[in-house]
Backbone:
C-alpha cells in the first residue's frame, strides 16, 4: 500500500469512510530502528537487514520486513536470527540517531496537538479533536502526518484513525506496513467482531489458550459470551476488561507526554568477561552513549546507576547521586567506574553491564557549576562538538581513544586502563 492510500474495514457503499468523531490517531513507525538505520545505507534497501549486536549472545532489536519473512523477530537471539536468515546484513544499532529522529517526529506531532501520548520512541497516540477546525478532517490530518514524516525523516508509518485508543491501535497494526485504516464510529463492532481473540489488548498466549478451550475464537464470540462466564474463567478484572473491549468500550483518554524518568544503555558481552580492563572499556562506551542520549533529550541527570549481571544471571545495581545534575560523558563514566570498582569483584565472570542516568531535569533549568579542572566548561563544550559531528557524520565519528578499535595490522590490542 502506498503512502498516499488509505484502507477501510469491510463496509458497504463507496467513497471514503465517515471519520466524524474519529479524533484518536495511533501512529506507529514501520520497522523503525531498521528503517532509521537504512537512511545512511540506501544500498541495503530491499534486502533482509537485522539490527542488533554482532555477537551470537546479542538479541535482535529490529529487522526489515524482508528479514521478517524469514522468521526473524525482535528480541530473538542473534544466533537464531543468523540461522534463519544467513544472507541478512547485520547493522549495529545507533541509538543517538534513533533518538534524534524520534524527537523530530514527536515535534511534528506537537505541531498538530498538545495531546500527544508517546508509547515509545516510534509510536504515539494523538487526540486531534481540537485541531480539526485548523487542519481539517481526521483523515486529512493523518495523511498529512504520514506525508511529512516520510518526506522529512525518510521513513514510513502506519496509522489507525478511530474514536477510541483501543480501536486506533488495532487499526494501525492491521494497516502495516505503510498504510492507514479509518474505522468509522458506526462500524466499530463490525470491524472488531471479525478479528481473532488474540487481537484484543491483554490477550497473551495463555489467555488465548483459555479462551480457545471455551470455544471462543473471535472477538464476536467474546462479545456474545455472558460477562460472568468470562469472569469465572479469566478472573473478575480480565473478564470484564475483555468483554468491554469486545463491545468497543474504551474510556481511556490520551495522556499528555510524560518526561522520561531515566535514560540508559546496557550491553551483553559475547562471552562472560572477568577482565576489569574490558569491563571499564564497556562502561566507558555505555556512559558515552547514555550521556549523548541524555543531551539529545535536552535533559541532565543527578543520579548515575550501574547494572551488573553475572554468569549465573544474578543481577545487582548500584547508584550514586551527584551534587549537581550533569550531562557530561566524562563525569558519568567516572561515577559509573567508581561504582563498579567499589564492588571489589575479584575475577567474577560478568555477562552484562549497564549505565543509567536518573533524576532527570531539563537542561535549561539545571544549574551548571564550574569545576577546578574544567575552565569554561571545556568538557561540556567538547561533548556538544561530538554531538554535532555525530549528527552530521553518524554515531561513532568521534569517540574516546579507548573505544577506537585497534587496527589488526598493528598487532593485538594493548592492555591498559580505559580513559575518557
Residues:
Amino acid at each position: 500500500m502506498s503512502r498516499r492510500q488509505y484502507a477501510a474495514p469491510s463496509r458497504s457503499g463507496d467513497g471514503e469512510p465517515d471519520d466524524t468523531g474519529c479524533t484518536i490517531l495511533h501512529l506507529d513507525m514501520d520497522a523503525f530502528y531498521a528503517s532509521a538505520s537504512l537512511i545512511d545505507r540506501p544500498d541495503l534497501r530491499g534486502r533482509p537487514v537485522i539490527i542488533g549486536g554482532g555477537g551470537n549472545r546479542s538479541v535482535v532489536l529490529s529487522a526489515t520486513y524482508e528479514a521478517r519473512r524469514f522468521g526473524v523477530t525482535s528480541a530473538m537471539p542473534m544466533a537464531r536470527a543468523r540461522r534463519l536468515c544467513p544472507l541478512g546484513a547485520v547493522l549495529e544499532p545507533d541509538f543517538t540517531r534513533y533518538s534524534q529522529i524520534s524527537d523530530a517526529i514527536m515535534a511534528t506531532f506537537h505541531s498538530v496537538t498538545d495531546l500527544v501520548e508517546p508509547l515509545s520512541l516510534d509510536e504515539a497516540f494523538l487526540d486531534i479533536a481540537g485541531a480539526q477546525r485548523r487542519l481539517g478532517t481526521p483523515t486529512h490530518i493523518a495523511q498529512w502526518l504520514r506525508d511529512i514524516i516520510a518526506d522529512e525523516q525518510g521513513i514510513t508509518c502506519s496509522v489507525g484513525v478511530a474514536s477510541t485508543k483501543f480501536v486506533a491501535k488495532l487499526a494501525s497494526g492491521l494497516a502495516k506496513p505503510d498504510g492507514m485504516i479509518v474505522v468509522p464510529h458506526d462500524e466499530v463492532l463490525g470491524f472488531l467482531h471479525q478479528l481473532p481473540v488474540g487481537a484484543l489488548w491483554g490477550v497473551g498466549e495463555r489467555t488465548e489458550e483459555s479462551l480457545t478451550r471455551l470455544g471462543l475464537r473471535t472477538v464476536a464470540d467474546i462479545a456474545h459470551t455472558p460477562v460472568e462466564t468470562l469472569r469465572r474463567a479469566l478472573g473478575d478484572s480480565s473478564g470484564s476488561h475483555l468483554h468491554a473491549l469486545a463491545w468497543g468500550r474504551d474510556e481511556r483518554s490520551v495522556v499528555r507526554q510524560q518526561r522520561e524518568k531515566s535514560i540508559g544503555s546496557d550491553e551483553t558481552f559475547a562471552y562472560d568477561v572477568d577482565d576489569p580492563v574490558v569491563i571499564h572499556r564497556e562502561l566507558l562506551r555505555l556512559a558515552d552513549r547514555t550521556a549523548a542520549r541524555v543531551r539529545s533529550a535536552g535533559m541532565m541527570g543527578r543520579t548515575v546507576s550501574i547494572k551488573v549481571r553475572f554468569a549465573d544471571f544474578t543481577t545487582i545495581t548500584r547508584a550514586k547521586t551527584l551534587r549537581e545534575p550533569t550531562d557530561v560523558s566524562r563525569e558519568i563514566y567516572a561515577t559509573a567506574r567508581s561504582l563498579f570498582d567499589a564492588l571489589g569483584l575479584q575475577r567474577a565472570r560478568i555477562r552484562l553491564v549497564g549505565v543509567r542516568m536518573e533524576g532527570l531535569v531539563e537542561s535549561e533549568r539545571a544549574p551548571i557549576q564550574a569545576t577546578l579542572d574544567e575552565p569554561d566548561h571545556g568538557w561540556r563544550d567538547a561533548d556538544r562538538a561530538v554531538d554535532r559531528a555525530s549528527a552530521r557524520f553518524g554515531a561513532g565519528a568521534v569517540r574516546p581513544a579507548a573505544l577506537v578499535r585497534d587496527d589488526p595490522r598493528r598487532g593485538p590490542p594493548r592492555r591498559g586502563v580505559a580513559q575518557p
